[in-house]
Amino acid sequence: MQLQLGETSTVVVSSPELAREFLQTHDLNFATKPFLPSAATLLYNGRDIAFGPYGDYWRQMRKICVVELLSPKRVRSFGPIRAQEVNELVRSISMVAAGGGHEEAINLSKSLFSITYRITCRTAFGEKAQNQEEAFLPVLQEIMKALGGLSLWDLFPSSNLVRLVSGTERKLKKLHLEADVILEQVIGDHVARRRTERVDGGGVDDHDKDLVDVLLNLSSKNHGLGFSITHLEIKAVILDMILGGSDTSAVTVEWTMSELMKHPRVMEKVQKEVKEMFDGKRMVDEADLDELHYLDMVIKESLRLHLTTKLSWGK
Ligand code: HEM
């Protein structure tokens, strides 16, 4: 089905056969995402990978994400951040549950959104950027809303009239500047700290550092990439990581919980599997999650049913 949305032609594919044609056989022809002026304004004019055009730069940056930022070793190294945040969430829910007989509702959606944003921000910025993290959260919330909403400017990207009359460009430029100032500050602090620690990047074990450190290490080396990794590229990729990893994870847990509540038989089976596996343990250890095969299937089914992002920031 083809939909003409303003100047943008959109094709909806709804059968497995056609999806294969688009996503496998002719993948390269469809790999570039449509040009959205909103995304370009907010995400450094396509220097990011979530909305940037397909090409050599995109492929190299994506490889850096896969090999350097999201490698299993790196993801494991950030385990303590996830454990600490999840423990905190469980503790706060237990406190409400033990609240002396008062029925108090827990807004799990809200908690899930704030926990995933805190985890991605701490992973990206490290432990010494608490002030910036707090200032960043409301800005991220606005950026997510702007990227998820329907904007007239995105439907008519070539129209100067729409650009000027809608006021979207002015609003988004202001938002971008707010995010940029915080990201620049975070990078500046990292650079200053590295200087005082006399960390030069080469041969340094950055294993326990954050994503900004990893990208700064890469920027100080010549990788034969054909382009430099400057502060601009670091900011674009970090923003991608935080925006790409937070809402998606929160929404996945939220949908899974809501499906489990609607299907008590499945909920019981999941609880049984978890209880048997972690019999006697106070907290679930991430390293053992691979053994929870039924839970894995439940999450996959939930993703199949609801592969969508809800952009409500846990309301
Ligand atoms: C349940 C969680 C997640 C879901 C459902 C999800 C879903 C998606 C989808 C549908 C895409 C678009 C792929 C395409 O256009 O071909 C995507 C891209 C992306 N995601 Fe995720 N994601 C999740 C978690 C994460 C996390 C945790 C991160 C980073 C920490 C992340 C970072 C990215 C990035 C950087 C891209 C752009 C790269 C590309 O297009 O290949 N995502 N994600």
TrEMBL record:
Read off the InterPro entries from this record. Cyt_P450, Cyt_P450_E_grp-I, Cyt_P450_sf
Keywords, alphabetical:
Heme, Iron, Metal-binding, Oxidoreductase
Which GO molecular function terms does the record list? heme binding; iron ion binding; monooxygenase activity; oxidoreductase activity, acting on paired donors, with incorporation or reduction of molecular oxygen
Its family? Belongs to the cytochrome P450 family.
The record's listing under PANTHER family reads: CYTOCHROME P450 71D11-LIKE, CYTOCHROME P450 FAMILY 71 PROTEIN
- Protein name per Swiss-Prot or TrEMBL: Cytochrome P450
Whose protein is this, by species?
Linum trigynum
